[in-house]
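Hi all, long-time lurker, first post. I run a small reading group and we've been trying to get comfortable going from sequence to structure in the token notation. Rather than ask abstract questions, I figured I'd post a concrete chain and ask someone more experienced to write out its structure so we can walk through it together at our next meeting. Sequence below, copied exactly:
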Amino acid sequence: MPPRDNEAIAEQVFVALADPSRRAILAALASGGPATATDLAGRLPITRQAIAKHLALLAEAGLLTAELGERRRVRYQLRSAPMQVAQQFLAALAHDWDSRLDALRDHLDQRTDGCA
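-- Answer (accepted) --
Happy to help. Here is the structure in token form:
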């Protein structure tokens, strides 16, 4: 599999996080640790089949790893690396906006000072 650029990774994370069911699954894994689709279905108001589909998308986005456990049950565990890439992407955007907003504030302050 070819390496993905950071923007593509961030995009997949944002797509994954857009759905409230997927956010609930991530929260359940964060608070309860690795779990199977059946375990998650017992904790969340989502069918096992829906959870399995969401888990596949979350794994495709790189947010989860799937490990074969006892009795061939697949356990899902969080991966933080893609989330960190998305956070860095947002931080860079915020920095760009902060710089522009600071420049606008300075410009408006100069105009206000000149009118006094």
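A couple of things your group might point at:
The beta strands are 64-68, 74-78.
The two ends are 63 Å apart (CA to CA).
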